[in-house]
Design a protein that fits this description.
By secondary structure, the protein is mainly α. The chain has one domain. It is 75% helix and 0% strand. The protein is built from 19 helices and no strands.
Length: 448
């Protein structure tokens, strides 16, 4: 694809969109203004009168923000080759429900009743998709990967690069141990059950690296059969959805600090979007649920360091290595030999955007003391970016539910399910031991 990849891949559009927002926000900040007005979110409320007054007052802001998102996403979707006649009504549907979901999350007692926005968005989406039904053409607007990658780039602007560097070695070490163990378990259990090695590699990558993206990348690299991809994707989705509920619930029962729980989620979740939902949900317990220490940001930061920095960046290398094994060991008739450039082509590009956003904000912060940064920069520059990140994640979480169809997930197959589940179970146990035992102090005090 060459240079066309820069405007024909969602990864790059997520970078342009995320960095564009960060740069525009900084230009407003440098001129003495802010993008706070358009980065609107509901205020905390405890009565319907408060809610109604706040919503009516902010209607012009919601409309302006909707137009901003619609214009940006529509332009990129058109260039990517999608029909705007399908995307626009679908996105309107997503945005309206996202408002309702975020409003519910702003309710004073939302955490008390476990009504965290990510979980509500997921469940509501699955109910609509499986019990009400929507026309398939609306899937054009349910861009799970696009929304989550945009959110991750924006996340970089709220995560200091110094923290990424400091925590990176620990995150990569922990992620490597867990990923290798998970992959080998799925692969060898699958082979023991008689599953084709290419499918075993595809399943293993889905469980060990970064979910759907890894299953597709490694499946393509090893020459997996066409029908293997949907099987791997279905199993990733099944386990990812289960972990959205399981990991925060068990973490809450154990009273884990938010940083420790975030690291466990980053070690054990199978998809970026699902993991962010779980990490954000648990972060919402900070200061709301007795016994849970830490901050909401620590949960998201720990997850990001484990998943995005620790696991996702290995995608290209995994695809390259497995391609070598496939062409030299599994193929008897010979095939196209992999080359080192495969690492770059398979590398998840949005990680670059995440890193750049983090560097930009770190350079800005270097001109302030910590007290002045929190007083002058956070409310005017960082908080509005964080609010827009919240919207991108809401679009993503709701879209996950809307694209999760139980009937399609049921076709994964018994042997495939057993092989993947063996690795997933090890993943969860090993992730807990390394996050909550071996590196407990590190994750509990993340960023302090």
């Amino acid at each position: 694809m060459g240079w066309k990849e820069l405007y024909l891949k969602e990864d790059w559009w997520a970078i342009w969109l995320g960095l564009g927002i960060v740069i525009v926000a900084y230009l407003f900040f440098a001129s003495g203004s802010s993008i706070r007005w358009i980065a609107v979110t509901p205020s905390k409320w405890s009565s319907f009168d408060q809610l109604a007054n706040d919503f009516v007052k902010k209607i012009p802001q919601y409309l302006a923000q909707f137009c901003m998102w619609l214009a940006i996403f529509s332009a990129s979707m058109k260039i990517l080759g999608h029909k705007l006649s399908e995307f626009i009504p679908s996105f309107i549907f997503v945005y309206v429900f996202s408002i309702l979901i975020i409003i519910l999350g702003a309710w004073k007692y939302a955490s008390t009743y476990t009504l965290e926005p990510p979980l509500v968005a997921l469940v509501l989406g699955m109910i609509i998709s499986n019990f009400i039904g929507l026309p398939r053409w609306m899937d054009t607007g349910f861009r799970v990967e696009y929304y989550i990658k945009t959110g991750i780039v924006l996340l970089g602007a709220t995560l200091p690069f110094t923290l990424v560097i400091w925590a990176g070695p620990t995150a990569i070490f922990q992620a490597t141990i867990i990923s290798v163990a998970t992959f080998l378990t799925i692969f060898f259990v699958g082979r023991k059950l008689g599953i084709d090695p290419r499918l075993c590699a595809t399943l293993g990558a889905g469980g060990a690296v970064c979910g759907v993206s890894a299953a597709i990348a490694v499946g393509g690299a090893v020459g997996a059969k066409k029908e293997d991809m949907p099987v791997a994707i279905a199993l990733v989705v099944i386990w990812a959805i289960a972990m959205i509920f399981f990991l925060p619930l068990v973490s809450r029962m154990l009273g884990l600090p938010t940083g420790v729980a975030g690291a466990w989620i980053g070690s054990s979740e199978f998809a970026d979007a699902a993991g962010f939902a779980a990490a954000q949900a648990y972060g919402g317990y900070a200061g709301q649920v007795a016994g849970i220490t830490g901050t909401s940001e620590q949960s998201i930061q720990a997850f990001t360091l484990m998943k995005v920095v620790g696991r996702d960046i290995w995608l290209g290398i995994w695809a390259f290595v497995m391609a070598i094994i496939a062409t030299t060991v599994w193929e008897t008739k010979g095939g196209a030999k992999p080359h080192a450039g495969e690492i770059w082509w398979r590398f998840p590009k949005f990680v670059i955007g995440f890193m750049l956003a983090s560097v930009i904000m770190t350079l800005i912060a270097a001109n302030y003391t910590m007290a002045d940064f929190n007083k002058e920069v956070v409310p005017v520059l960082v908080s509005p970016i964080k609010n827009l990140r919240t919207w991108a994640f809401a679009f993503c979480f709701f879209s996950i539910g809307l694209t999760t169809r139980f009937r399609e997930l049921a076709a994964a197959g018994g042997k495939n399910f057993l092989a993947f589940s063996a690795g997933a179970t090890l993943n969860v146990i090993l992730g807990f031991l390394m996050s909550a035992v071996v590196f407990y102090q590190f994750w509990a005090n993340l960023g302090q």
